[in-house]
Amino acid sequence: APLTDTVPPQVVPGADPSARQLCFAWGPAEVLVCETLFGRASGSHSRCPSRSLSPSRFWGEGSAGAVAPALTGSVTGTGEGAPSSSRVFVVRRDQDIYIQTLRKLFNESHGIFMGLQRSEEELAGKSRKAQLVQVSKNYRSVIRACMEDMHQAAVLTRDPALQGQYSTQVSILSAMELIWNLCEILFVEAATAGPLLLRLLDWVRLHVCDVDSMVREVLSSDSPSKHKLFWNVVDVFVLQGRMDEARHLLSKEASANPTSMNMYKILDDLMKKMPVPSLGNTQTLTELELKWQHWHEECQRYLQDGTFASNPHMESICKILLGDEDAILEKKELMTTWYHFLVTRLLYSHPTVKPMELRFYAQSSMDLFLGGESSPEPLDMILMAAFEFEMHQVIKECSIVLSNWWFVAHLTDLLDHCKLLQSHNLYFGSNMREFLLLEYASGLFSHHSLWQLGVDYFDHCPQYGRVYLELHIERIPLSTEQKALKVLRICELRQMHEQVRSICKIMAMKALRNNRLGSALSWSIRAKDAAFATLISDRFLKDYCERGCFSDLDLIDNLGPSMLLSDRLTFLGKYREFHRLYGEKQFPEAARLLLTLMTAHIAPCSFWMTLLTDALPLLEQKEVIFSAEQTYELMRCLEDLTAGNPDKQKFQDDDIETTKVEMLRLALARNLARVIVKEGTVEGS
Amino acid sequence: QDNRVSIWSVGDLGNAGLNGEYHGEPHLLCDIQHNGDVMDMQFLDQERIVIASSTGTVTIFRHHQNNQTLSANHRWEKAHYHVGQDTSWGGAACTGVVCSNPEIVTVGEDGRINLFRADQKDAVRTIDNADSSTLHAVTFLRTTEILTVNSIGQLKIWDLRQQRNEPSQIFSLAGDRVPLHCVDRHPNQQHIVATGGQDGMLSIWDIRQGTMPVSLLNAHEAEMWEVHFHPSDPDHLFTCSEDGSLWHWDTSTNVSEKPSFLHQGGRSTAYLSHSTINQSVVSAWLSNDPTKDRMEITNLIPNQTLSVNSLDVLGPCLVYGTDAEAIYVNRQLFA
Question: Where are the WD repeats (chain B) (predicted)?
């Protein structure tokens, strides 16, 4: 079993600290380790090795039972003048999240976790406990479902390495379910004396399945009582407290062997009458104890009378019924584990065992069973800690042994909801539940799609969850707009305005670089980013100046209220409107708009020359369009522009600029003349 | 990343349990590796499926039903790309695909519209820079006309017979230019179009009149990813959203037949007063009179957590997929 290997210290495979000095840097989910040019013997100049981007990806194998660093990629580079190439290693801690078949575990358990967080806290007492037990059962059924899938995958695959990996995972999951089930019985359900034994019996029956194939073999044979393993199977049933099945088999033996009919009847009777704790309130513990004592004495009598002397099998069964430790220990191979031995012992000697008494029996059972031949394995230590009700010890041991935080995070969260964990302050201030959830969720964030689950986990870490989320969420690669939208929605829901702005800026810049001006604008609108909107409008205006026409008219014509996001954008919209009005020959409106653009200072100064040039055709129209007032305004604008800074004009454009100005002055003067006359003319004269 | 296109079988009706409930899980028949995220997909015919990828490639897969395998039949690489880039990083996601055998129309983040024919290697027609923003979805309006929605809140009609690269009509929302993510046309009455926006709003348009929607219905709390009219029963509409809900909009209920307190609702049922002048002639979707008919809206998901990204509906079956990597099948939609 993988949990039995002792954990050797793991080195990043391929990185040899004895040859080169290594340096490292922490990332959000990874560690970068690189080889420097510092040799070990000589102290050479420090220079970072240059790297060329030729990534060779290969997965490292951590031993399944260790928190092993896994090499996820190495980049081979060529240092300048270096005799050999230097490498950069990307070391990632949590590689279990990439196992395909475990994804179901992560997704389903996320659903159960969320349900638990949202569940009714007001429910008290029994109904709350029942609810928590149900949650625990749900987690376990997810583990089992995953085991099934993994097992199927192991059967179907042809790759032996994969098969090995799957089988290992199945054993790990099985061990996890074993531990969880015990924790459920002892901590969540907190079974009391009486029902405790029944639960433990169920637990053993469910998890000790090495004997299942033997049982099946015997039961399906033609005459089971003649099978050589017949008595083994009967013993198994007795050891697991499966009285009805044991009696059923024995009846076959009795019918085949009439001479032992008498013995069989007595044994059958004893087994039938054995008092067991009941789940309902039909009897108190004291009643049970009395009955049991009475029954125990009866068995004792039969044994001492030598009733079973002629049949060693039946005699041994009777001894087991009496709780004789040696007799039970003889059947070591059928029990396979010390905890099976523990439960059998309890069944036949202390059926009303109290939870707090378990630790003594557990310790002695383990000692007797292992008998000094073998030493306890990590799994044994974990179970022992559970029997001793040392919850923190259980969690600590599991954290060390398992390669992934899933198990401890969810179990601790459940125990915390059962109000069983006192806040155990770690040196950076958060409690254990939060610490484990943070670690688990951080691991999820290094996955390209499971990070969405991590968000919800961070939400339920009151102290540091938000900070962790803020740091992690900005590092999710945004390969498509849809992904960016999902991330944005998460940030907006949690009022993470910084991150919203930052993500929108990234997307808008990308769009701008790809010449998708409409998309860029759409992102700035979402972030209400006026500065970026200005940037985009400047791009449009630049395009217009260069090409003489607008690109993306569908966008500019339909800006709507978003036009108000930035002044430059408003100008762009209005300017386009001017062009449209002109195109539709609505000259007075166009003229008015043009003037407003300049006088209301909506237009940037750099654009005034263009606007004035646009006014030219209006000035040259047969009809007088600009009124005297307006003409004066235009002249003022022109003077403001030219008087501003004559040094600004470049020498090359000097001629063009002066010609333009000249033409404008001429046109303005002519217009002024015409309009004075027109306005001065009295109608009808 | 390991993305796959898969075909599942949902068993036969013979597996129905005591109450006619469906037991058993969908069973994977076959799958095939796919490069990039699957952004959209549609059946071209009984055997072929067109897939739009986030790398900008459009692929036709063929499903061989005799031996239950999938194979790539045809591929248009770089159907969508950003200007000036010809390396693989220059690809632009293809966001929507719609088929009308043998024609396939795709749209993407590059604002490009492509018209392909299933048997031809190159695109039949490409409209470059059809839109200055991202085109999110496309659907057929008539055999030669398509509808697109974009990220500045515009619904555009394109006539593919005409050679000019301009839309024949542009519709937009009043007020803020909220991006539109999905579009669907009423199966029988071709002037009725539904779109879903980034703010979760459902808009119903009558494209015969005006440039603005007929009704705006406040629906989801986050992006509405898909909207579908039921193909054979178009009084029913389905929408799914990033907020994790899937809503069933039912305009078939007639108040005069059932008193409202006898309505059987789902987990969360809301009544929106919705009007109609003349229900027998005008569809219940185009409504003006708030006093008359009511629309029943039901959230079909009891415990919502993560986004519902996609849905489809046919006959009594509804299928949808969520970000929790789960696919749900409901085979008794109208029970």
Answer: 173-215, 217-259
